[in-house]
Design a protein that fits this description.
The chain is of the alpha+beta class. Helix content is about 50%, strand content about 20%. The chain has 2 domains: about 10-130, no CATH class; about 135-200, OB fold (Dihydrolipoamide Acetyltransferase, E2P), CATH 2.40.50.140. The N and C termini lie far apart (about 85 Å).
Length: about 200
């Protein structure tokens, strides 16, 4: 029990002689760093961090990249970045200059810059994110060929290039005419997930 009584995390990290403002900077950097490492570790084991922090901190959308990036900078990731960089920059400046006003200014600037950077990073993620969803309505006007004969009273299949790739889709003739295999068609409409086509 005496080992735990003598344990001092700040002493272990080399801040045992820190006092006042230095202690605030060191605590901020330590809390931000520990939260970041914990969050990163939980994200690496399957995105558990989003659910845990949403529950503990009452923050919805922590793991949702679809949320507005400017708001994301003020949520958990932004808070971690602010604490960590505020503490590190403030502590470094305090050690270098011994001037508390400059240290607070530099720490605050670094903290807010890191929050801004976090927001920009989320914006980048949003622009890179693609769910691969293609609306069937994009097929209207596209050309293709009949893959499986379209009977006059039923559906067949066509191969149509839309949404950046060649797709095989169910299709019906727009005038109930039979269209044979290999014939060229044009998509004129959609009905649910069925293309309405005509001969070219």
């Amino acid at each position: 029990m005496s080992i735990l009584d003598d344990f001092d995390i700040f002493e272990l990290l080399g801040f045992g002689d820190a006092t006042g403002l230095e202690m605030i900077f060191a605590a901020s950097a330590l809390v931000g760093g520990v939260l970041f490492l914990l969050w990163f570790a939980l994200m690496m084991i399957g995105g558990v961090a989003a659910d845990i922090f949403e529950g503990l901190l009452g923050m919805e959308g922590v793991g949702d990249l679809g949320a507005d990036a400017s708001f994301k900078a003020l949520t958990f990731q932004g808070l971690m970045a602010f604490l960590m960089f505020f503490g590190l920059a403030g502590l470094y400046t305090m050690k270098a200059t011994d001037t508390s006003t400059i240290a607070i200014g530099v720490g605050g600037a670094a903290g807010f810059a890191s929050m801004w950077g976090t927001g920009k990073l989320f914006q980048l993620f949003i622009t890179l994110q693609s769910d691969g969803t293609v609306e069937i309505s994009e097929a209207v006007g596209a050309n293709g060929t009949v893959y499986l004969r379209i009977p006059h009273d039923g559906a067949g299949q066509v191969q149509v290039n839309f949404g950046g790739s060649l797709r095989t889709m169910n299709a019906k003739s727009h005038d109930d005419a039979e269209i044979g295999n290999g014939e060229f068609i044009e998509v004129v409409d959609t009905m649910g997930d069925v293309l309405i086509v005509k001969r070219q």
